[in-house]
Amino acid sequence: MTTQITPPGPVGSPRRLTGWAVAALAAVAAFGASLWSALNNDVTYALGGMETAGKTGVSIWDVFVARPVAYRLLLAVLDAPVAHAPLRVAHAVIRFETALLVVGVAAVLFFGMRRYLDVRAAAAVSAAAGLALIIAPQWHFLEPDWVAAMFAVLAVGAACAPRRVWVGALLGGFAAFLAIAVKLATVPITLLALVLVGVLSVRRAAWAAVAAAGSAVLWYAATKRFLPWEWTWLDDQANLVADSPIHHGLRWEDFHLLLVGLGDVALLSPVVAVAPAAAAALIRRLPPGRPRWIGAAVAVVAGGLSVASAYGQGEFYMYHYAVVPVLAAAVWGVAFALCPGARTSLFVTTVVFAVASFVLLAQPPEWRLDNVTPVSLSYLVFAVLAAVATWALERRATPLVPPQAGAIALTAALVLATLPNAPLAFSGYNYALSNERPSAPGYAALRERIGPDTPVLYLAFGSINYLLRNPSTCRYPSPQWVQRGAHFKAVRTYPSYRDNLRCLTEDDRAGYLVLQPSWFPWKKASPDVRTVISARFDCSVEARVPAPKGLVVCPARR
What we know:
mainly alpha
């Protein structure tokens, strides 16, 4: 079954070119603002691990950076042109490369949507989804969950674009599988993509699902055969998050944390707060009766799948919600294009929420933490009221707001979290941290003191590897398992811990120890770890090498 939502329509009027030029400039300016910020530390953790381990011959297939091999391959491609570039250049170029990749994904989505929507609507949904990816919040951008959202957008477009269904099934199904390959916990995002394809064509969605499942089986068999450690790491990683719902089932406490996190996402990306109004407009335009009930059910299922990954992971970090602003922006875009009567309501609501978030995100961290509940409830109340008003006015209101103004409002509702010094979260984990420029004070001097090619043993978070860039001789360049073993004795029984421990006990090539005490509490480590560190490195105050704040650098005993 295939649904033709709107007939093809004209591209637009030349009289509107000036307005569209202004809207385009606003989007370009938003992208320019995003270039100011450094890549987040989770991304540089992976980049630093791959770079420093790679310098001593550890391949991308063998290195552990707490990310699946599919994600590592993508980062390696993005990092290859700038592996030796200055820090700020490297960050900006990786962002630019990723933006080009997203533009390609958005183009595929446009051609896919063009099969079912007119040019305006297809352009609106693809531009909105692409923009939401490119100027995503700093703690979303290039995280595995963000990459999964990008592949989900690609899956929707690829499944719908080809004329032949079987070609769309293969392409869309493979893209949907990639959303799983970059992180297994993002299975709900793949299901979300298939549901959205199903809204347009049940047949295409069904065959794409078959292709995705087949790709997943082949990937499992190949990695199980040739990269078995990937599954050992995955099993041990899952066991690390002992408080996840996958271990203890449903609890009200987890639902509460999920909603608090969702409130933070709406504050960082206020387009999320407008999404219910946009969905209401789309449902309202359907014929009364069963079609509207089906539309409402699809909206509920899509919304649930967009947050299911965050719920399943049980940690409720902001990047676990990375798909939510992308889905919200896409729904906003298609509603603004297809529902002229709702444009005024959507525009006003978007502007109000954007202004409110701009003011609220500028408040001190302590104030945000103390007032998160009333602020989030206020957003919820106004989001519901906006949805009710949009429903009531969709068939009655005169479209007074031009699409160009709507595009500018959408950009404003997406860009806030990428602005300089914007917080990484409103009240959740890392709420006191903010966007910063890429910088590495003292690291160049340290590199010169110890020699830029001298192998070191990092007992530090992987972003330290990225800043220092001295070679690591270990396939665990940031020793997560030994670090977690210092906090949780049960981790010392994991296969990954025992493998990680060999970096300390069986490899003596490191000329220095680079210790980050705030991350690696070595005094809490197991006795054998402490013994090896003391025997191999001289960490007396007199022997320490001058280092950047927060690091202790100890020479090897010779």
